[in-house]
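yo

u said u wanted the structure for the complex thing, so here. seqs first:
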Amino acid sequence: MDINASKVDPKLLELLVCPLTKGRLSYDAEANELVSEKARLAYPIRDGVPIMLVSEARKIEG
Amino acid sequence: MTSSFNVHHASGYEQLMGRWSRRLAPLFIDFAGLADGEKVVDVGCGTGSLTFALAESADLAEIAAIDYSPVFVEAATLRNNDRRITIRQADACALPFEDGTFDRALALLVLHFVPEAGRAVAEMRRVVRPGGVVAAAVWDHFGGMPGMRMMVDTVAALSEGGRQLRERYCWQPMMQPGEMKRTFVAQGLTGVVETELVIRMDYQSFDDYWAPIAAGEGPLGKYVATLDPAERARVDAAVRDAYQAGRPDGPRSFANIAWACRGTVV
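structre next:
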């Protein structure tokens, strides 16, 4: 079984951009997060659902 | 705060409003328009009343649904077995989509719970391509919902807290005549049209009407949940009396008016 596929349906990642910057997102399969480099934010994916809220995003330090 | 809606349980919402928003959805789709092959975003999908109605109404290419509430996102996701539908948690005022992604952006019974509703309309406009359509519908709490006004007028007669509830309830965003139309125009949409959509809410009994509110669901439920037992008993009895209107308990039917507005993206 593909461990990444168990985390999120790739179709759920299509179309999405950072809600803050409207810039592109990259999927970090390890952390199961959607990373906005420009905003320095990582949006979590919980129970397979992308949480596209700035208030729920993890700040990327450094 | 980007949503003022109060939801505890998706099943409670279904009984309070979901069953009626499902009834309203086809009327709203007729008004908003829809064509085969389109990509549509459902802003504030709730339990999916509009989302799943969209899937049945046309051969759409894509239906992207978002909601601010994790309770709603989970409920809609559990219901979904349509590959064209994707559901994510997001804010109507900060949509996670690129400019011009969709042919239509629709919001059914959402904008009156968004304090900065104008920002949500601006975001809907942004994610729709030129020539595409933005459409929304909200309840007319003040003048178009006798079944709910009956409850808020009853509690307003009983206490100051009830009067404050009535004020909040009657003056939510986008509910005044022409208010949504002005907002659409202010956000740069063209050919803006506002109309009224009417459905009836049919209850089997007082309990059918009151149970979701008594369980704390929605803005009215949130209020009754704050009452002490004596006040609560007075409210229950007074609202029951208003529902029955002097006749034995049984079915009652109320007309309900929603404002609907649509505009085209330049």
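The beta strands of chain A are 26-28, 33-36, 41-46, 49-52, 58-59. Helices of chain A lie at 3-7.
cya
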